[in-house]
């Protein structure tokens, strides 16, 4: 049974106060808090087990290597991937998408070739493709969402032309909370011979993911949104895509031999993991994923769906609040504006005085803000440790902000 109070007790920061009030942390879409198990694992790794991985023959190096490499299998299980050798460890989604842009897309795209994006994409899934636009003349094609924030998979598929070389879309919008039917996109794209990259940063923390069933070519995740350390993450790369991809970075670990005249690369995924990695961060990520799987992804999703429904009902009673993104099955992410002259930054500041932490700004989603006709919103994003009482605290703080700006 899902016991939110028991879960909250595992996250020490939730017991603190901010501005004299209990912390209500609703900025999980930016970065989630860490359970004690992750904090303890990081402390233990640094204080008792730290050494560099792969290259040493001594006890600590072997122990660190064993714990570090075990995380590859943990990530594979978490993402529903049978073969852990399709998991490339890195510092997060941004690193993963850039690796694909430089290592896979850049060598095979020419001027006039196309990449299809949705208007909901985070800048991490936009800027690397702009590099290709600027430097190689690649064309970026945009697919809009409807008034509810829904992305029609067929519209994405219909945008494919003979020049389309890649589709890169989010699995879940960090602004609207929209869940995208990425399997339908993958199925339709593959029928036309087009690979698909999925930005899973927001989705993987809110729902069970099965990549073997989904069938995408690339799927990127970031650890700090998954209750793990910053500087940790991974990208799934389908085996045949790995054979097509050249290394993005050069250095230690990604080579077998180096001489004055040649380099012999290591086998994938090591071929794409240059240099000393984030050893302790990655170990911490593995503990975070084990924690989530221990709670149960279906149980987490059900709890967050309840929070979503409750928050929708409470926010609907505030007729001076406009919520962006109204798809029925959206995640518990609410981006909103307040009528009148109240700026998102001012609203966020007032909420902070009540101990309520939300995000304010464009949320690294410039094209979506332009599409919505907005410059900024406030965003309350929920996690498994949030409660209905915290929804009430958010609404109370918003009512205070409205009174101040009325």
From TrEMBL:
<dbReference type="GO" id="GO:0030170">
    <property type="term" value="F:pyridoxal phosphate binding"/>
</dbReference>
<dbReference type="GO" id="GO:0006534">
    <property type="term" value="P:cysteine metabolic process"/>
</dbReference>
<comment type="similarity">
    <text>Belongs to the class-V pyridoxal-phosphate-dependent aminotransferase family. Csd subfamily.</text>
</comment>
<comment type="function">
    <text>Catalyzes the removal of elemental sulfur and selenium atoms from L-cysteine, L-cystine, L-selenocysteine, and L-selenocystine to produce L-alanine.</text>
</comment>
<feature type="domain" description="Aminotransferase class V">
    <location>
        <begin position="24"/>
        <end position="394"/>
    </location>
</feature>
<keyword id="KW-0663">Pyridoxal phosphate</keyword>
<dbReference type="InterPro" id="IPR010970">
    <property type="entry name" value="Cys_dSase_SufS"/>
</dbReference>
<dbReference type="InterPro" id="IPR015422">
    <property type="entry name" value="PyrdxlP-dep_Trfase_small"/>
</dbReference>
<dbReference type="Pfam" id="PF00266">
    <property type="entry name" value="Aminotran_5"/>
</dbReference>
<dbReference type="InterPro" id="IPR000192">
    <property type="entry name" value="Aminotrans_V_dom"/>
</dbReference>
<dbReference type="InterPro" id="IPR015424">
    <property type="entry name" value="PyrdxlP-dep_Trfase"/>
</dbReference>
<protein>
    <recommendedName>
        <fullName>Cysteine desulfurase</fullName>
        <ecNumber>2.8.1.7</ecNumber>
    </recommendedName>
</protein>
<keyword id="KW-0808">Transferase</keyword>
<dbReference type="InterPro" id="IPR015421">
    <property type="entry name" value="PyrdxlP-dep_Trfase_major"/>
</dbReference>
<dbReference type="InterPro" id="IPR020578">
    <property type="entry name" value="Aminotrans_V_PyrdxlP_BS"/>
</dbReference>
<dbReference type="GO" id="GO:0031071">
    <property type="term" value="F:cysteine desulfurase activity"/>
</dbReference>
């Amino acid at each position: 049974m899902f016991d939110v109070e028991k879960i909250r007790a595992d996250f020490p920061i939730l017991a603190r106060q901010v501005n004299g009030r209990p912390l209500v942390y609703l900025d999980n879409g930016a970065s989630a808090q860490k359970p004690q198990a992750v904090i303890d694992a990081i402390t233990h790794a640094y204080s008792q087990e730290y050494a560099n991985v792969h290259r040493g023959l001594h006890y600590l190096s072997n122990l660190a290597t064993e714990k570090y490499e075990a995380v590859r299998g943990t990530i594979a299980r978490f993402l529903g991937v049978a073969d852990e050798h399709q998991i490339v460890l890195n510092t997060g989604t941004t690193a993963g998408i850039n690796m694909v842009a430089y290592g896979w897309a850049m060598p095979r795209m020419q001027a006039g070739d196309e990449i299809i994006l949705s208007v909901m994409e985070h800048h991490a899934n936009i800027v690397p493709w702009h590099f290709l636009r600027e430097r190689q003349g690649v064309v970026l094609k945009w697919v809009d969402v409807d008034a509810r924030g829904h992305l029609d998979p067929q519209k994405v598929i219909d945008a494919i032309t003979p020049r389309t070389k890649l589709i890169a879309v989010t699995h879940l919008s960090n602004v609207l909370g929209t869940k995208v039917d990425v399997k339908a996109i993958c199925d339709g794209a593959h029928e036309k011979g087009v690979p698909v990259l999925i930005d899973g940063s927001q989705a993987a923390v809110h729902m069970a993911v099965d990549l073997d069933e989904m069938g995408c070519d690339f799927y990127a995740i970031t650890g700090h949104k998954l209750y793990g350390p910053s500087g940790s993450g991974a990208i799934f790369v389908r085996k045949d895509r790995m054979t097509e991809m050249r290394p993005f970075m050069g250095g230690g670990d990604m080579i077998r031999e180096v001489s004055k005249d040649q380099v012999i690369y290591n086998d994938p995924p090591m071929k794409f993991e240059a240099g000393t990695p984030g050893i302790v961060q990655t170990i911490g990520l593995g503990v975070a994923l084990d924690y989530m799987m221990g709670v149960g992804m279906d149980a987490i999703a059900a709890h967050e769906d309840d929070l979503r429904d409750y928050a929708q009902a409470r926010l609907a009673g505030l007729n001076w609040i406009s919520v962006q993104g109204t798809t029925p099955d959206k995640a518990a992410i609410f981006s909103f504006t307040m009528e009148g002259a109240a700026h998102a930054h001012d609203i966020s500041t007032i909420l902070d005085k009540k101990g309520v932490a939300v995000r304010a700004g464009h949320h690294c989603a410039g094209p979506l803000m332009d599409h919505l006709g907005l410059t900024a919103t406030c965003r309350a994003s929920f996690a498994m440790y949030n409660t209905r009482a915290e929804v009430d605290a958010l609404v109370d703080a918003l009512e205070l902000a409205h009174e101040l700006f009325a």
